[in-house]
Amino acid sequence: MIEEFLVGRGAREQAHPGGTLLAHLARTRDSLAVWGARPVLQLAGLTHAVYGTDGYPHPLVAVAERPRLVRLLGPEAEAIVYAYCALDRRFSYPRLLSGVVRDRFTGEQVRIDSPLVRDLVELTFATELDVMAQNPSLRKRHAVELRSRLTTWSGHASLPAVEALERLHP
Length: 170
Description:
The chain is mostly helical.
C-alpha cells in the first residue's frame, strides 16, 4: 500500500543519487530491517523523503498534506519522517545529539526527545550509507566527511549501523 502511494507520487521516475528515489527508499528500509530496527522506523525509512529534505529538495507530498500521511503511516512513523525532512542540516547536525534542531519548514528551533534523536541518527546512517554505496562519485568526494560526522553520532546508533559505517571506504 505504501509502495503504491510512493509510485503514484512519482518516486519510481524521480532520479536520486542512489538511482531512483523509490529504489533508495526501499534500500533504506531494507538496511533498517537488517539492522533490527523496529517496524515503525523501517516504515519511516521507506518514506523518509516524502516531504523533501535539506539535501534532496524534491517532495512527493506537500507538508500541508501531513494529516493524510499520518493516516497512511501512523502518527509515530510520520513524526519521524517529518522530523527527518524538516532538519535544517547546517544548523541541526552539530546540535542533534543535544536535541536542539531547526525546522527548515517553519524556521523554528525545537527540542526533540532522545528516542527521536536515536531514530534520526539511525535513519541518517541508513540513508547516507545507501547513497555512498550506490554512487562511487559521491562516495569519493564525501566519504571522509560523512564518516567523521556519523562517527560522532555512533553512540546513538545501533551496532549494525556502526559496523556498516566502518565498512565505508572512499
